[in-house]
Specification:
This protein has about 375 residues and is an alpha+beta fold. It is built from eleven helices and eleven strands. Strand 10 and strand 11 form a beta hairpin. It binds S-adenosylmethionine. The site of S-adenosylmethionine has 15 residues, from strand 3, helix 7 and strand 5.
Length: about 375
């Protein structure tokens, strides 16, 4: 793959391929690469060149022709969110590799690592995540993550369990597609819902054959990162409906399931104390960080405040998560494989371990913030 002076992928081949099509366009100020060029620990994404012109509000960042998108073909409908055909088509292109008509994109996709989503974890990783969640007590709830691949791909799409390319394609679409479309360049934008950072809007093709457009929703300064929202217009978003062309109601735990990372603030949480569907036991809130004080602020969904039983349950989980953390060193010794090849039924990879503990921190923080906020509003009522 083409690289910059630091040896980081720079997407020049992708940009040339897209702009060589009459309908293709990439803003001249766009840079593909690492957040901190040359630092392999920093994330890959889309940026405005430090020495480039700003991208003005309303300007097109990227326009991707239909032929350059991996899609379900004529079966595409812009209101459909899943498609077996799309995943089969992606697997077909991945197999073609260099000979694919979409080779610059396919070659980049083939460099992506697998195993980052909880549903892809080793048996030991899944088991420990389940333990951390108190069985099926805390989100993400098991039915949303544990057997996703088996239910969605093997059962619903009649996928082949022994086909590693199909498996890779399935997980790639989980973390990169936009409602059944794999869209080059656009899929390099990382996620943020921070209103000072989220700087784009996206417009899907109305029908097969149309282009995909990615547009600046505010001026983006040289050096800044271009962000997309992976759960735009969800419950914590306070946005104009015109901005909900692409949308999702995923909450923070769902992003962890589908993308393998814990989003920064603002976050959205929903806890369901019982699995009895006939009783309304959920409580849900948005969690934001106050820019000035740095304090966390909880905003409760209307009619979704916790009651006394919920609060006792929250305390129990905070306590349980704390006890687990005290045992971290011993658990690490017993559960983390020295090399990824040793991961399996008994041992998990280092990356799985780290990811589970990042999520543990996020859960503990969210539960503590909920507890404090509920205590504060109760004492206000007295
Ligand atoms: C659509 S891709 C975005 C581009 C990707 N970073 C790349 O290198 O090609 C989605 C993946 O990027 C990563 N990602 C996106 N936004 C992130 C964020 N705010 N924090 C951490 N990782 C993020 C996650 O691994 C996610 O599964």
């Amino acid at each position: 793959l083409p690289t910059d002076e630091h040896g980081d992928y720079n997407g020049i081949d992708l940009i040339e391929w897209i702009t060589s099509h009459p309908d293709g366009m990439i803003h001249e100020s766009i840079r593909i690469g690492r957040e901190r060029p040359g630092d392999p620990t920093s994330i890959n994404g889309l940026f405005v060149k430090a020495d480039g012109k700003p991208i003005e509000k309303g300007e097109t960042i990227a326009q991707i022709p239909w032929d350059h998108i991996i899609s379900p073909g004529n079966a595409y409908r812009n209101y459909k969110f899943t498609s077996c055909k799309a995943i089969y088509n992606l697997a077909k292109e991945l197999r073609r590799g260099e000979t694919s008509s979409k080779a610059p994109y396919v070659k980049y996709l083939l460099t992506q690592s697998s195993g980052t989503m909880p549903g892809e974890f080793s048996k030991a990783g899944k088991k420990f995540l389940t333990k951390m969640l108190g069985g099926d007590d805390l989100p993400p709830y098991e039915e949303t993550w544990k057997d996703d691949y088996e239910r969605m791909w093997l059962d619903q799409c009649a996928g082949d369990e022994s086909d590693e390319v199909e498996r890779f394609a399935y997980w790639l679409t989980s973390s990169r597609d936009e409602d059944t479309l794999m869209v080059p360049i656009y899929d390099m934008a990382n996620h943020s819902n921070d209103s000072t950072k989220l700087n784009t809007l996206s417009y899907k093709p109305r029908e097969a054959g149309d282009v995909f457009r990615f547009v600046a929703s505010m001026r983006i300064e040289p050096g800044a990162q271009v962000y997309n929202s992976y759960n735009r217009c969800g419950s914590c978003a306070d946005v104009d409906h015109d901005e909900c062309e692409t949308f999702s109601f995923y909450k923070t735990p769902d992003l962890f399931v589908h993308f393998g990372f814990v989003e920064d603030y603002p976050q959205s949480w929903e806890f369901d104390r019982t699995d009895d569907q006939t009783v309304d036991e959920e409580f849900e809130f948005c969690l934001e960080k106050d820019d000035k004080t740095g304090e966390l602020v909880v905003t409760w969904e209307e009619d979704a405040m916790p009651d006394d039983e919920d609060i006792a349950w929250v305390k129990e989980h905070i306590n349980r998560l704390g006890v687990l953390e005290k045992d971290k060193e011993r658990l690490e010794e017993n559960l983390v494989a020295k090399s990824n090849d040793d991961a399996g039924a008994k041992l998990m990879t280092r990356a799985e371990w780290d990811s589970i503990w990042t999520y543990h921190r996020a859960l503990t923080t969210a539960l503590n913030a909920a507890l404090q906020s509920s205590d504060a509003s109760r004492s206000d009522e007295l």
